[in-house]
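Recall the central idea of this unit: under ordinary conditions, the amino acid sequence of a chain determines the structure it adopts. In this exercise we apply that idea directly, starting from the sequence alone.
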Amino acid sequence: SSLHPTDWPIMRFTPSTYCSLQALFLLFCQYTRSTQDSQLRTIHSGSVHETQALQVRAQEQAGPHGTLVLPKGGKRIRNVGGLAVLHIKYTKYSGNDGETLAIDLLLRPNDEGRANYLVLANGLTSSSNDPHITAHFNSRWACGTYKLVVREHQFYKGVHISFQVAAPTIKVTCVPV
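Accordingly, the structure predicted from this sequence is:
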């Protein structure tokens, strides 16, 4: 099975892969900065610990970026009659070489047979004085297990780049009133 572009930064580059200039730039930067691994890897399956270790290694190779504070992986949300709230808290990156401009939030079904993403927000940001991006979402339409895909937009060394920084698993349990 092929990976969605939001699964980059730990992706094997193949000619059939969809690539934008930003993605090519990011892959090039990651590849040239990697001293431990000589090639980028594709995650097919494995233990949770193995997958988490690869995600941490990929984030370390990705360069400076913000951090998802909430929700933590494994978060369970109880949705009673369409009333449930997903709380997001993200710490922005700010350094001499770049800064977080905004984030995109998507729910990717954990079922490989479903390729549709549920877009929670595109371009979510906070004031320049606030080091955190905080938001609350009602998940009345989402029931099941998802990856909360967080894509960060940065102005990095004068260029706008976008890349995935996190994808913790969340489970929304829907029960009637």
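The mean pLDDT is 72.
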